[in-house]
Design goal:
alpha/beta, Alpha-Beta Plaits, DHBP synthase, 10-stranded mixed sheet, 7-stranded mixed sheet, 23 helices, globular
């Protein structure tokens, strides 16, 4: 019996070789029909013997290409047609656009083999790709994913590429970024003034510059990188001076995992992450903390990555270059430079040369960052290789835009049962980042075919730039969402959990419903709402935001709170160097609450401890004091400093003053720094577990969600997770959504969507 079936498929099925796969499978099974792209995904009409047609649908599900991800497959029987053979039809451009866009991928092994094969016509072609690899999200301009809707549309295929593109037996059958030396994008080497230089081989010219210790701006998939030889200490120091980046770690690219082994503690998990299609930066532990100290100062870890473009492979294949600094070409926390016309203006004072090309980058993307932990790797910055893959939700919601926070900004768009979290945008205090937020939202909405949203969600803080953006837009009413509630719900969405639970949300700063500074929060609730059921003892921030940049101010205020004006002598350079007038003024500010707001932020406790131990009294980048305190910790301890738990209006409050007093006594006794750091960390773990147990007994809830920037700290995340499991909790931690503010837009969007649904159901 003959049968004809219409198969509609949604998911990541465009730009991943899906149509060629379907074409070859249908021909192999001697079935007739066609396949085409449309705005929602892929549509197949298949005809043949009933058993064969049914088997075909199952094989499509089970044997899809490696980059494909099928979310939904629908089959409908339709009338038979007098058709022969199977074809790939022209894409349908009309109708709703909801097809998922594939993220950019690393270059596949087959393309690498061709890249270094002197007999291959794409030998050393820096833009080699196929249906299984290469740029996708960064070059697409519209849906459906066809060459005219990408930045490759301006490149006309040569006869050889056209033959490959049209041959069902070829790996590049309907590969949209296809090109070669004759017809594809080309490299250009430019001098420090961005003028084309007279080198015949741009790669050779680039290598000459790198060998001389010079800085080269290299155009990649999602933007420009600034590159120097990582093993040349003078070159790295010079890059720091030019970029005004004194101590923040640089990412380092290695030719292969084998080349990385001499520098790091070997780890199979790390290897699989480094070699994954997304090719993120992975924070890996060094064999010796002094290794690559210029790239990663005062840090036991290094941000390592492997080549992910053919151009990277060509550069790293030079035997001279054992490792290369590859840092985003931007000022700190600003968007990565991705337009050629901006390269000279933004990078002219830093780059000695430019290695660029004529394939336009349509969407900028930074490198993603991950950190391995006991429960798996955690994405700390979600960008290239992950965006714009959606987070699937448990139900359909109204269309919502959420604009996130001001630091590590991302935004989120909900469409139906999918939440699209954007790539990393940056710090909104910079005008260029603020502008990039609006531009990227507009681009996202166009690609997702979202004409309007029912609400724009934002942080409750009235002075956040993201809140200003929300208030200035004209597309929909705004919904303010409390910062830590958004953190908790982002994790619940990621892990597909519903109902009420306990949230332990630890970060530096978040605007509270009482107008205060929260950040060490114990919440009970879920998507429908929450109650604040505990926090940490507040500490003054003398000078307000200045105290965040200068943690010694918080440390001094804490010393004043413990000892009054009679602060004991301590072997701390910052304390010894303070004049009596400065010391007394800061103590007076803290005592009388003069420009000294109270903070409940857990991050500030880590900052203060770092200053009190003598590790970091002033910071040059966000989170530096807490990071270096964690780096000082070498071996765990069983007993932390004594953490008090006091009652305030019936709520448990973690009292850090006993912790700090015991810590100061150890500093005075000149106990080892690593021992003090370990006891402080363990005190945080023990205190949090104590409050969680109290809430469990009080509420009967045994699910706990750990979110907020403090859970980027491996010791706190792993040890608290272990302790809570031992206490009978089911523990949820982030994996694919950042625990820091890069993830809160997801929570904001769901909370706003739920409020709208609740209003409609009344």
């Amino acid at each position: 019996m003959m049968k004809r079936t219409l198969i509609k498929i949604e998911g990541i099925v465009q730009g991943v070789g899906f149509r060629p796969f379907v074409y070859n499978l249908a021909n192999y099974m001697n079935l007739a029909g066609h396949v085409l792209n449309h705005g929602k995904g892929v549509e197949i009409e298949i005809q043949g013997p009933e058993k064969s047609v049914d088997a075909f649908a199952q094989r499509v599900m089970n044997e899809a290409p490696p980059m494909a991800h099928i979310i939904k497959l629908e089959e409908v029987s339709i009338e038979l047609k007098s058709t022969r053979g199977f074809s790939i039809e022209k894409s349908m451009g009309e109708g709703e656009k909801s097809a998922l866009i594939a993220p950019d991928s690393d270059v596949c092994k087959q393309c690498i083999r061709e890249l270094f094969d002197p007999q291959n016509r794409r030998y050393r072609y820096p833009f080699i790709s196929c249906t299984d690899c290469g740029p996708r999200y960064s070059i697409i301009t519209d849906i459906p994913y066809d060459r005219p809707n990408t930045t490759m549309g301006r490149f006309s295929m040569c006869s050889e590429c056209r033959a490959e593109y049209e041959s069902p037996q070829n790996r590049r059958f309907h590969a949209q970024p296809i090109g070669c030396h004759s017809c594809g994008p080309r490299l250009t080497y430019r001098d420090s003034n961005f003028k084309p230089a007279s080198y015949t081989d741009p790669l050779e010219a680039t290598m000459i510059q790198l060998k001389r210790g010079h800085v080269v701006a290299i155009k990649g998939i999602g933007g420009y990188h600034l590159a120097v030889n990582a093993l040349d200490e003078k070159a790295v120091h010079r890059l720091r001076e030019l970029k005004k980046r004194d101590e923040k770690p640089f990412a380092v690219m290695f030719p292969s995992y084998g080349a990385l082994i001499p520098f790091i503690m070997e780890n199979d998990t790390v290897r699989s992450l480094l070699e994954s299609h997304s090719r993120p930066i992975i924070l890996v532990e060094k064999k010796y903390s002094r290794l690559m100290k210029s790239a990663s100062p005062r840090n036991r870890y290094i941000g390592a990555m492997l080549p992910y473009t053919p151009l990277h492979h060509l550069i790293m294949s030079d035997a001279f270059l054992g490792a290369m600094i590859m840092t985003s070409a931007n000022n700190s926390d600003e968007p990565i430079v991705f337009k050629d016309e901006d390269a000279l203006e933004k990078l002219g004072g830093v780059a000695d040369a430019f290695l660029t090309h004529d394939r336009e980058i349509h969407t900028r993307e930074d490198d993603s960052i991950e950190r391995p932990m006991s429960h798996g790797s955690v994405v700390l910055r979600r960008s290239r290789g992950y965006a714009p893959v959606p987070i699937m939700l448990n139900r359909e919601y109204p269309s919502i835009l959420a604009v996130g926070g001001d630091l590590k900004n991302t935004f989120c768009l909900i469409k139906g049962s999918k939440a699209f979290l954007s790539q990393h945008i940056g710090d909104l205090k910079h005008k260029s980042v603020y502008e990039a937020l609006g531009e990227t939202i507009e681009r996202f909405m166009r690609l997702l075919d979202i004409k309007e949203v029912e609400a724009v969600a934002h942080d409750m803080h009235p002075d956040y730039m993201s809140s200003h953006w929300a208030s200035e837009q004209k597309m929909a009413p705004t919904v303010a969402v409390q910062h830590h509630h958004a953190h908790m719900v982002s994790l619940m969405a990621e892990t597909h959990q519903e109902g009420e639970a306990i949230g332990i949300i630890f970060d530096g700063t978040g605007y509270g419903e009482d107008g205060g500074i929260w950040g060490g929060e114990f919440l009970v609730g879920g998507i429908n709402g929450y109650q604040r059921m505990g926090s940490v003892s507040p500490v003054p921030l003398p000078g307000g935001d200045k105290a965040i940049q200068e943690p010694w101010r918080v440390a001094l205020a804490i010393l004043g709170g413990i000892y009054g004006p009679n602060i004991p002598r301590m072997p701390l350079s910052w304390l010894i160097e303070l004049s009596e007038d400065t010391k007394n003024n800061i103590l007076k500010m803290a005592t009388n609450r003069l420009n000294s707001p109270l903070s409940h932020g857990m991050g500030r406790m880590f900052d203060a401890a770092s200053a009190l131990v003598g590790i970091r009294s002033k910071i040059t980048f966000e989170g530096q004091a807490a990071l270096e305190l964690e780096m000082a910790l070498e071996n765990p301890v069983e007993e932390g400093y004594p953490m008090g738990v006091v009652e305030n209006d019936g709520l448990p409050i973690l009292d850090f003053y006993p912790v700090f007093q015991a810590l100061v006594e150890d500093v005075i006794r000149e106990k080892p720094t690593e021992f003090i750091a370990a006891r402080f960390h363990q005190a945080v773990v023990q205190g949090a577990a104590t409050v969680a147990m109290r809430l469990k007994k009080q509420t009967g809830l045994d699910r706990v969600f750990l979110s907020g920037g403090v859970f980027q700290n491996r010791y706190v995340s792993d040890r608290l997770g272990q302790r809570l499991r031992e206490d009978g909790f089911t523990v949820f931690r982030h994996r694919r959504v950042p625990p820091n503010d890069g993830g809160i837009a997801l929570g904001q969007a769901l909370i706003a969507g739920q409020r709208i649904l609740a209003g409609k159901e009344k």
